[in-house]
């Protein structure tokens, strides 16, 4: 059974989803959100400072669930990427909510942070100077995030496995 806090979060996210079908994210007020969610403003502010924080905190919680792969061998990258794609697909409702709110940068920042850790592990075997390595990791992590955002924006036509194969091929070249 969900806790009161989890239930409040679900009510707020559901209300935000409904409101985003009617108006822009920036036009939604806390009063309106709490009214549609059926929770008090005091309850909202107990958990969040503003509506953006509602999205940010929930995204960070989801991303914290994403498995990390600290000691991957090169042969395991494709499997790790497939796991990542399946993870994002499992959270598609929330990711689509973020995209409807036009908060792609929030999603990009969070995905990039996680992917940097994976890319950093892989990059230890690459012949780059430290400065060049930083750019290599940034390039691939941001590219990965952009592909995920485009995949969701285009309706996830490809399977997570197809996306993983595409990403693996491009990350390893």
Automatic annotation (TrEMBL):
Residues 29-48 bind DNA. GO terms for molecular function: DNA binding. Gene3D superfamilies: Tetracycline Repressor, domain 2. InterPro entries: Homeodomain-like_sf (IPR009057), HTH-type_Tx_Regulator (IPR050624), HTH_TetR (IPR001647), TetR_C_Firmicutes (IPR039532). Keywords: DNA-binding. The keyword DNA-binding applies. It comes from the Bacteria. It holds the Pfam family TetR_C_8. This is Transcriptional regulator, TetR family. It comes from Lentilactobacillus kosonis.
């Amino acid at each position: 059974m969900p806790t009161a806090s989890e239930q409040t979060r679900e009510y707020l996210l559901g209300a935000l989803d409904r409101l985003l079908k009617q108006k822009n994210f920036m036009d939604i007020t806390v009063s309106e959100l709490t009214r549609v969610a059926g929770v008090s403003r005091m309850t909202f502010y107990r958990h969040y400072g503003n509506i953006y924080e509602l999205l940010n905190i929930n995204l960070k919680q989801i991303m914290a669930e994403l498995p990390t792969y600290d000691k991957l061998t090169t042969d395991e990258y494709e499997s790790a990427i497939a796991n990542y794609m399946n993870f994002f697909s499992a959270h598609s409702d929330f990711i689509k909510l973020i995209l409807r709110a036009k908060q792609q940068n929030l999603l990009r920042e969070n995905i990039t942070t996680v992917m940097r850790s994976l890319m950093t592990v892989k990059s230890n075997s690459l012949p780059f100077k430290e400065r060049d390595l930083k750019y290599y990791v940034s390039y691939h992590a941001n590219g990965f995030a952009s592909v995920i955002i485009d995949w969701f924006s285009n309706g996830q036509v490809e399977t997570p496995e197809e996306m993983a194969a595409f990403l693996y091929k491009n990350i390893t070249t």
